Design the sequence.
């Protein structure tokens, strides 16, 4: 029988351009002690239209090293943007699952930050 992942954070966070940020959505480790999972992170953010938002799930191993999942890329729209990132995987013993995001402005000289309004994590995992 699967367990459910259901986390939300309404804490505004700034995303610095071209810098990966591990999100804390109620907690940093979204999944721990599981064998496999399927999860989606939904973000509501404010950034100039045409900017790039990339996200990826990664596994943090017990020794501190990590395994990076594939990068998923989304473009922003005028006003608020609603982007989602989905991943399915299996977890080794002692690994946890985390999610990170980066923001890239459309204009190379734009140094403004994106504002992350809401982050949600939803999914299922099996122990």
Sequence:
């Amino acid at each position: 029988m699967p367990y459910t992942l259901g986390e939300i954070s309404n804490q505004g966070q700034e995303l610095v351009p071209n810098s990966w940020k591990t999100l804390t959505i109620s907690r940093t480790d979204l999944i721990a002690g599981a064998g496999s999972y399927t999860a989606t992170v939904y973000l509501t953010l404010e950034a100039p239209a045409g900017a790039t938002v990339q996200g990826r799930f990664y596994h943090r191993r017990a020794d501190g090293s990590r395994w990076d999942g594939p990068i998923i890329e989304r473009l922003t729209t005028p006003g608020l943007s609603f982007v989602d990132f989905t991943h399915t995987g299996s977890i080794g013993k002692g690994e946890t699952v985390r999610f990170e995001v980066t923001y890239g402005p459309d204009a190379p000289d734009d140094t403004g930050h994106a504002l992350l309004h809401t982050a949600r994590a939803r999914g299922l995992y099996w122990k």
Summary: The chain has no helices and eleven strands. The chain has a mean pLDDT of 95.
